[in-house]
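Ops channel
N.P.: pipeline sanity check, posting one input/output pair.
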């Protein structure tokens, strides 16, 4: 049964979503002061890992994404004349369409590859040679591959920027960016530096940091803002020594994140402001399912005012009977990812100056 509401709990979700967690992003425009200098640092960069960002770059990306989301009709041509090579050698719906939607919304053109077997790779062509050809055909590459080394192999020959859209069990950096953007939209008070008592939230992550690229990348992004998270609870069904890669936990805790491990779901739910749930991890050319006994549905003891996030696609772990509740922010998460990727692509393709002065 969902817990009853209190005014303190509800303060986390004052921007009550109109439909499916579709919050108004304008609060972020007020919370983050614009400084385009940080965005210029992303010009022509490859985006491979969450480790490569700094805190101010992230905040400015979120601000630009909020600008796009607040006024989507005003930004239709920044990438006019630019061509995206969308290369998805691993199955994808949301990530591929999200990137392609972002590029189209900015006025660019797209060449899309959705099947490795239709490319020269199937004949034994090296990724280095593919990258050399990409230099002649497009202005930016988005790559998803089950091989975690593929991005690095292509970078050696690329003279145009590439985005890692998921490489095996390693990372999915733009998903993590979209995840934190969602959290800040839901609770912009986190960014309010004018108050003596800073807002903090508790987040529960149902998944394995050493197996799930979404979880691995999310933790890396949270580590840039440890003061905003009172506690990060990793909820799992494995032995504790099977949760993290070597030194992974130590690095996160050194950043200031307060981590706790638990193999219980329902006992933690009433205390969690954000519940992030995932169930599958790509391993090789197939996926493995984890945490099958962890299920969220309308009977789960969720905190009043708390939200649920999920990178999607979902399975039985997240029931559709939560879709029409205020806890549903996973659809907003997917929607916001388009605008976050619009912001990132604009910066990478050196078109930031076309949108910085437009409000």
């Amino acid at each position: 049964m969902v817990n009853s509401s209190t005014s303190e709990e509800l303060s986390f979700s004052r921007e009550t979503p109109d439909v499916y967690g579709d919050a108004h992003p304008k609060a972020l425009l007020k919370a983050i002061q614009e400084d385009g200098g940080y965005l210029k640092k992303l010009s022509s960069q490859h985006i491979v890992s969450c480790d490569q960002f700094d805190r101010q770059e992230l905040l400015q990306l979120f601000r630009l994404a909020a600008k796009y989301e607040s006024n989507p009709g005003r930004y239709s041509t920044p990438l006019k004349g630019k061509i995206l090579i969308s290369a998805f050698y691993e199955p994808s719906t949301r990530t591929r369409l999200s990137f392609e939607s972002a590029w189209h919304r900015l006025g660019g053109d797209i060449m899309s590859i959705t099947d490795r077997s239709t490319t020269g790779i199937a004949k034994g062509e090296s990724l280095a040679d593919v990258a050399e050809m990409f230099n002649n055909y497009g202005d930016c590459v988005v790559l998803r591959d089950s091989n975690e080394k593929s991005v690095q192999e292509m970078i050696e020959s690329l003279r145009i920027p590439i985005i890692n859209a998921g490489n095996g069990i390693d990372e999915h950096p733009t998903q993590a960016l979209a995840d934190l953007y969602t959290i800040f939209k839901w609770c912009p008070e986190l960014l309010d530096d004018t108050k003596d008592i800073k807002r903090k939230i508790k987040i529960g992550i149902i998944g394995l940091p050493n197996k799930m690229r979404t979880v691995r990348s999310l933790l890396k992004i949270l580590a840039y803002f440890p003061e905003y998270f009172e506690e990060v609870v990793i909820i799992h069904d494995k032995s504790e020594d099977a949760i993290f890669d070597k030194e992974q936990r130590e690095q996160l805790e050194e950043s200031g994140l307060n981590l706790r491990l638990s193999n219980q779901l329902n006992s933690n739910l009433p205390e969690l402001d954000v519940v992030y749930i995932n169930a599958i991890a790509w391993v090789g050319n197939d996926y493995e399912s984890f945490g099958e006994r962890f299920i969220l549905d309308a009977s789960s003891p969720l905190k009043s005012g708390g939200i649920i996030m999920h990178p999607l696609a979902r399975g039985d772990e997240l029931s559709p009977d939560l879709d029409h509740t205020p806890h549903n922010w996973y659809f907003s998460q997917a929607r916001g990812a388009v605008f976050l990727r619009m912001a990132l692509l604009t910066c990478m393709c050196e078109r930031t100056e076309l949108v910085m002065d437009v409000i």
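N.P.: looks fine end to end. The domain at 27-171+337-352 is CATH 3.40.50.1370 (Rossmann fold).
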